[in-house]
Amino acid sequence: MTDLQTDLISKELSEPYQLPEAAIEHFNIYGYVKLKDVLSESILSHYDSLITDLVFKLNKLTKPMEERTTYERAFLQVMNLWRESEEVKEFVFSKRLAKIATDLLQVKGVRLYHDQALYKESLGGITPWHADQFYWPLSSPKTVTVWIPLQKTLMEMGPLAFAEKSHHVEIGRDLEISDESEALMNEQLKQFQLNETPFDLGEVSFHAGWLFHRAGANVSGRPRKVMTMIYMDEAQKIVQPRNEYQQADWETWLLSRPIGSAADSELNPLLFSY
């Protein structure tokens, strides 16, 4: 890659995105927003190659598909790629994306909780209904995940689907991702409108930590490659873990910082602040 190409990538990742006026209201009401043309084809192509190489290098899930649990069939999951590559770090630390997260949450700034690549292999199964914040020992619902497909994502690839407004009700908040969560929430979520649509190249979504979402199986014959970053309010505090997953997250992503203290370990850098 030439110095000019490197400079252009850095410029795009740092310059502000023109957030539509209605996006913040949509996010507040429905718990998510999909945004077009957030990243260019050249950026996505460049990071597709880098992130895919890291996923195959770091992935530890090698069991045949038929021997995997429902969770394992959903995707290959590799976390904190920013610590493995300076180039991927620049993507994860993008001020363009972090500013969108800050504006949607209506906070002063955001820190990184962690990043994760989610690669749904060909013939990969569904991602069951779940709310991400079940896993996080954090004091406030001021959290948001950006979901960035690295290719155009048609329905047969299993794009992310959202139960609109489900972040406003306290149902299913004690459920991990499982067959049980899929069965129970299929019933509970009938009261909510489902948004399940393809993603164009360059289109990304942001969804709240307590919004229920799922994804279909990948029957396209090609992998569905997605990169995500989880952002949290820069003022977020750590709470006593309420389940074994939060305990693990507290130790892994927050480095066992004291309960009640700021979620500002060295793994949780400030990515944007006004």
UniProtKB/TrEMBL annotation:
SUPFAM superfamilies: Clavaminate synthase-like. Pfam families: PhyH (PF05721). The keyword Membrane does not apply. One of its GO terms (molecular function) is iron ion binding. Keywords: Dioxygenase, Oxidoreductase. Its cofactor is Fe(2+). The keyword Oxidoreductase applies. PANTHER family: ECTOINE DIOXYGENASE, PHYTANOYL-COA DIOXYGENASE DOMAIN CONTAINING 1. This is Phytanoyl-CoA dioxygenase family protein. It comes from Dyadobacter pollutisoli.
